[in-house]
Amino acid sequence: MTSYNLSLTPCFLSGGVTVGGDGGRSLAGLRPAKVSTGRWVQVRKRSQPVRTFVRMGAEGNGTKSNGVNSNGVKSNGVFDDVLRMSQPAMGAIPSGPPPEKPDPEELEKQRRDLGRILTLFMKLATPFWKEEKGARWRLGGVVVLTLAQAGISVAFSYIGRDFWTALSMKNMDKFMYQAELFFGALVIGTPIVVLYTYSRDMLGLRWREWLTKKTLGDYFDSINYYDIENNSDVDNPDQRIAEDLAAFTQTSLQFFLTLLISFVDLLSFSTILFSIYPPLFLVLVGYASMGTFITTVIGKQLISINFAQLQKEADFRYSLVRVRENAESIAFYRGEDRERSTISKRFGGAVDNFAKLLKGQRNLEFFTNGYKYLIQVLPALVIAPLYFKGTIEFGVVNQSFSAFNHILNDLSLVISRFEALSKFSAGIDRLGEFAEFLERKVEEEKNGTAEKITLETTPEATIVLEGLTLSTPDAAKRVLLKDVNLKVEKGERVLIVGPSGVGKSSLLRAVAGLWRSGSGKVIRTEDSEVLFLPQRPYCTLGSLREQLTYPIRPEDANVDDKELQDVLNRVDLGSLPEKFGGLEAERDWSDVLSLGEQQRLAFGRLLLRKPALAILDESSSALDLEAEGRLYDFFAESGITVMSVGHRPSLLRYHNKKLRVLPNGETRIEEVKRADVAVAAEAI
Length: 684
Known about the structure:
Blueprint: E1 12-14, E2 53-55, H1 77-83, H2 104-111, H3 114-131, H4 135-168, H5 172-220, H6 224-231, H7 237-276, H8 278-299, H9 302-325, H10 327-333, H11 336-375, H12 378-388, H13 394-411, H14 413-416, H15 418-447, E3 454-458, E4 463-471, E5 479-488, E6 493-497, H16 504-512, E7 518-525, E8 530-533, E9 542-543, H17 544-549, H18 554-557, H19 561-570, H20 576-580, E10 586-587, H21 589-592, H22 595-609, E11 613-617, H23 625-638, E12 641-645, E13 657-661, E14 667-671, H24 674-683
Parallel strand pairs: 1-2, 3-7, 6-12, 6-13, 8-11, 11-12
Antiparallel strand pairs: 4-5, 4-7, 9-10, 13-14
Helix pairs in contact: 3-15, 4-5, 4-7, 4-13, 5-7, 7-8, 7-13, 7-15, 8-11, 8-13, 9-11, 9-15, 12-13, 19-22
């Protein structure tokens, strides 16, 4: 038996052990996806992962050494040939070491590199202000409100000085006058502060909206979302788009405006403090500089720890989502203990890392808390002698405290916000990594520099493969198939056969334009005339109508309810509208429909779409033979060109050609003979 080196992600058996008359749900994971990239398979931890499974064979069949299969049917040449389609390829592709991973110490060093963080920040932040109409005007309005807020603070400083001087001198008239000024400034200042906060957050929301739309555009462009899932080390793209982008825009704006306020405060209150007593200003600058340096030294490790915490929390969350998505499969396997152990291990990693984070914060707070407490008496220690000598009034002492604290807060920004800055830096690192990958893929597509299979389109409903070689997308570039040459004429139906793991499904992906690692050329009809039916059909979020018209939007589908109902009747799903409350009913369709029903629904899409080319990857594995026959007969009636992968011997009768994939990566084209079909049918 072929051995598979898998990650800790559970790997379920699949192959046709089913529940229900029409195939029902598979006992395997509810959303498996085959990986045909050789024996060494890596399962990445991400929000929508590539899941692997070990196939048991067509409908759970197997062969015995005595020439009789597990169903008790005597084997013969043709039937053995069909059964061998499902057997693992012995030595098809040599096992190789996994791709080299980046050095963890080097990654750690990069994440602490301030220059790199600033470069990534500018790359992420600049486009919005350059390209979005009105963005700079909105920012200008927020800046004006920021300056007004700083002006209000300076005004309160002088009002407070004279207020406390009048109180200490028992001057009632001056005291009441300053009280009136205080309330007047309060009436003016309150709306400014409120409008500043509102305008800042609204601008952050607009920035997030723009940046999210741009990122989603790059994410879905040239099927980059598919490449991220299969070929990159960029984990949890959903978290980066949904959470990290939101945090980046809001926090960036807050930090920018905080820096602006700090700069204005620094200029305003430095003048005040310097005019009161220059040595106090020098003490303040030295104290803040020392505090910033010590904080940076103690807390620099928090950046990488925060980065790791984001990743570990995302992995923990994904493991819980995975249980929810595959609850029935886990229950069938009684896999609770295994899942609990796996989830506990991931949670333990998050807890251990968070404990490390708390220790780092504890060490930092030993210094920062002492730093903050000393601030309360430091100005008094320096300026008190002047007050005792009568050189300055009590109100000036109060003003010096206010100015000292304002300036110290401005100069101590790194100290007071270091933990937030470390989290912010970790978020920038994750977003920058994501953006760089998308940018690189877009540039490769734009410049034509990507090493990939050439895909050309033609108005004809044909498939032409010219010197097609498939290799794994990792650094090893192991060859799966080599020099495939094939021409499928309009209306022909080709069945791809061969042992498991030799690249049959990868060949379908190459024809569909998904597998691009390798060389050679694929010529086929344009995308709008191609429909791909996987073994596990995709059920989109939405109504029953949207399931049938997918991937076309319902408003663009131009089909009426009667036509949709007719299609449902043809695929034996006519009762669904009545059962769930009409075509507009919304459910989690991947959960409420069995695998067999989902496959029927996918064939319903095909009946509606009427494509010129259909690509099928075991699309009828959960259907009974009668239903399978009715659906495949549609291809013959409509003249659709078909390329499919399947393990059932019953599929031979619906195809006129076989493309045999050999264990050494070579291929051979064979005609499907009537005698072969008859023998296979007899064996069934």
